[in-house]
Write a structure and sequence with these properties.
The chain is α+β, with helices and mostly antiparallel strands. The chain has 2 helices and 4 strands; from the N terminus they run E-H-E-H-E-E. The chain has a 4-stranded mixed sheet with strand order 1-2-4-3, with helices on one face. 10% of the residues are buried.
Length: 93
């Protein structure tokens, strides 16, 4: 498969400081350069526009909507599915 899922969270006190972006940029580079994976997938709840905006700014592209994808806080939540392909398009033998 040569892919992975990306999940992330940050303490409310650290939001809006660019820290998550910095961490994700480094993590994405590491995943592509060191593990040479083909794609990274990340999903977010549709009303979490900040998360969607962050992923888009990092080069993730929307692939669709998964209905009732995860149960969060007691209810099933839809999720927007996104992915980013390795620009080097390297393949692990």
């Amino acid at each position: 498969m040569q892919a992975c899922y990306l999940g992330y969270s940050i303490d409310k006190m650290l939001e809006r400081q660019g820290i998550m972006r910095e961490i994700l940029e480094a993590g994405i580079a590491y995943i592509f350069d060191e593990f040479k994976l083909h794609r990274i997938m990340a999903n977010y709840i549709p009303n979490n526009e900040r998360s969607g905006q962050l992923l888009r700014s990092l080069g993730f592209e929307e692939e669709g909507l998964a209905k009732s994808y995860l149960k969060i806080a007691g209810s099933w939540q839809d999720h927007v599915l996104t992915s980013k392909l390795n620009p080097k398009n390297e393949v692990i033998d």
